[in-house]
Amino acid sequence: MALTFISGDTHFGHAEAISLFARPFADVDAMDSALLERVNERVGRKDTLIHIGDFCGPADWSKRSTRRRAAELRAALRCRRVILIRGNHDPRGIKAFDRLFDETFDLLSFRLRGGARERFNLCHYPLRVWRGQYSGAMLAYGHTHGTLPELDRSSDVGVDSWDFRPIELPVLATMLRARPVHVPTEWRREQPAREPSLS
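User: That's the sequence. What structure does it adopt?
Assistant: Structure tokens below.
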């Protein structure tokens, strides 16, 4: 049976990611190799990997060598199906990059199969409010590399938060489902009333 896994913020090829995010790798080649190995040890050929963004880079996508390296990294992933939730370092308008993935989205929202069919939202960025939040909907995000506290039924699924490994979607959903849903009892205004003009 094919499974679905989530991961993200790999920053393949980004040497500065090692110091920026306190990653325990000697150099960028060691990091890339370890990240590929940890995906491939869990995600099978017939499984789906949802990547929550920042697959590579930052990088100069105008260079052929950058595009070639990204293609090599994608080819090294054992699973045939990879869906990208576009992050801030994933280029737009580069067809060679987009072709690496089966689908690309800025934000994806769907219902989980089975029982309650809860809503699951995916976005590279950690939203404070998301679709269906007060009805128990879940959110998986990246971008922050484990530096923000998780809010309600949301989780940072980037590699820095999960021992550089992808997590199976049903396992993540079970973890988030156990968290309480905080429904506001009143909507207190936090922003002052403003004039329509900024002058």
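The two ends are 61 Å apart (CA to CA).
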